[in-house]
Amino acid sequence: MSYRCAAGLPLVDAMTPPVLVLSGPLTMDEVSGPCEALCALLDGGGRGAVVVCDVAGLGPPGLTAVNLLARLQLTARRAGGRIRLRDPSPALCALLDLVGLRFETEGQPEQREPPLGVQEAVEPGDPAV
Fold this sequence. Notes:
Elements: E1 19-23, H1 32-42, E2 50-57, H2 63-78, E3 82-86, H3 90-99, E4 104-105
Parallel strand pairs: 1-2, 2-3, 3-4
């Protein structure tokens, strides 16, 4: 069986995850709306679907933001998906780290990968392995 190769690159659909924009200031009563919106975005995405949560508009971080993000992460995991944070402020990252919540963020290398441009130092005279 043979086939003729098409000229050029094959057409591929780009897979861009849906984005949930979160804006502040938040109150404790505003948790159910974003969770329902997240469920709607994850519906039909299949197992392992990702939704990007844009947190740049949350304002100053506080425990209300931590509560919202924890509930969104729990909702995503129950639906078989996960969330990724876009544009978190350093203060929000520090607060999430303080309370022990880990989130995947856009634009950061994974923890097991060294950042680009980092090279190991080699001492002169070290034998090559």
